[in-house]
Design a protein that fits this description.
6-stranded antiparallel beta sheet; globular; 13 strands; mainly beta
């Protein structure tokens, strides 16, 4: 299925953020997964280590992204690349929600600080 309309997207909520999944194996993505993540103001997601590269593009708002200890405040139009094995931390300490477009290869896994592993359904 080459086209995914917004009413076909699947929404998942975790760690205070909303993940709106468009491209994944269930919608025809054989190699890539892509989603929009909505991060409310005042949200700090837990640090997690990713199994594969992720690319981030800020659609609206502002956001602090930390990749393996290096932080940057992103504004609309900014992008970032997190390599496999890097630790990510997403923080929105600003007064408006932020919206990101994220892309990775299907099959992404994330390890949390407590050692547990999650397999995000929006990236499968």
């Amino acid at each position: 299925m080459p086209f995914i309309h917004r009413d076909e997207a699947t929404t998942h909520e975790t760690h205070g953020a909303r993940f709106v999944s468009y491209v994944h194996s269930g919608t025809g993505g054989q190699e890539l997964a892509a989603w929009r993540v909505e991060v409310p103001a005042g949200t700090a997601a837990p640090a997690h280590t990713i199994s594969q590269e992720e690319v981030f593009y800020l659609l609206s708002g502002r956001l602090r992204l930390t990749i393996s200890g290096v932080s940057a405040d992103l504004a609309v139009g900014d992008a970032a690349v997190a390599p496999p094995g890097s630790e990510l931390r997403v923080t929105n300490s600003f007064d408006q929600p932020a919206h990101l477009w994220v892309t990775t290869r299907t099959g992404l896994r994330a390890r949390l600080a407590d050692g547990s592993t999650i397999t995000p359904p929006w990236a499968q």
